[in-house]
Structure formats: structure tokens, C-alpha cells
Amino acid sequence: MAILYKAISENNWPAVKEFIDHHPRALNQELVASTGETPLHVAVKFGHLSMVEELVRYVPPEYLKKLDAHGYTPLGIAASHRGIIPIAKCLVDKNSDLLAIPNGDLKSNPVSLAFRVGLIEMGRYLYSVTPLDVFKPENGPPGPSFVRSCFVTGDLDLALDLLQKCEELFFAADYGYSTIEHIAFYLSDSLNKRQLRFWKQWVYHC
To answer: Is 109 helix (H, G, I), strand (E, B) or coil?
Structure first.
């Protein structure tokens, strides 16, 4: 497997293809036992778009749901490490179910992961393609977590957009506090008086 790992890391598709053609089961095996990474995880980790595109053609959609030893799908890696949007798009186009899969110890969905690590453009892309149902409170922490991440990064337009579409998030909890409490904390710490009036009026209206 070291040969395959090296070829992927060097973005050497001819060598990877030759290896896979002779050892097709390699696609389903961990390249490094300690990390649990599949060939696709490795290609995403190194940010090789063309390699990702080629590997995705070789595998069924369900393959993209495989988790590494840390609980990340390939999309989770793309969202939290490299921030290369075309790679994320390639993965999402193959299997959009990835957008709802919790990743890592915090069980964050990809869009929240991106905002948590500061990959804002990646986060905005993922938000644009993530179904609204993923954020609903009954489906767990992704919704409240995402709104809180938007406050941290200052992406208030996305927080506002989601809260307008899913008002039940106001009273959903994240880290022991409801979304409305997180809004109150943010208002008191960060906004000027003009912004404060706008948010107070909007929250009251909702």
C-alpha cells in the first residue's frame, strides 16, 4: 500500500491507475492503518483535484461515506483541511448525502466544519448545497452549531437566512445555550447601536 500512497501523494494518476487495475481491492483498503484513510481520503488530503475526479469515477456513491480513523468522510476532509471548493463539488455531485454526515469527535456536518476552521468560502459553498432538513433541530446539533459558527466568523447574512427559513432553531441548544441566547451574547459583545436595533427588531418580529 505504500506504493499506492506515494503515487497518490505525488498526483501520479498513471501509476495509481496501473496499481488499481492490478489490485482492484486496494480501493477498499486502508492505506495507512493508523489513520484509516482510503485512497480517496488521501487524494483529498493532498488537494489533488484531478486525482479525486479520477478516483470518484471508479467507485459507487456509497464509497464516499467511508470514515477514516478520526471519523471523517472525504468531504469532511475537504471541508476542514484544504478548502478546495472544486474537490468538495466533485464529492457532493457524486453523493449529496455526505452533506448530512457528522464528522469528527464533535459530530459536525461539513458546512459547520468549514466555518469552524475558518474556511469561509468553502463554508458558503457547502451552505448553498446543504438541504434545509440537515439544519432542523430534530436532526441534532448541526443547525444550532452552524448558527453559532456564523456568529463567530461574522457571517450574519447566512445566520439570518437560515433562521428565517427555520425559526424553530431559535430555541434549539448548542453547548448548553439556545440560539436566542447565543444571539444575545453576540449582540452585547460585537454590534454597534445601529446593528443592535436591527437585530433586536428582527428577533422580536420572529
So the answer is: coil
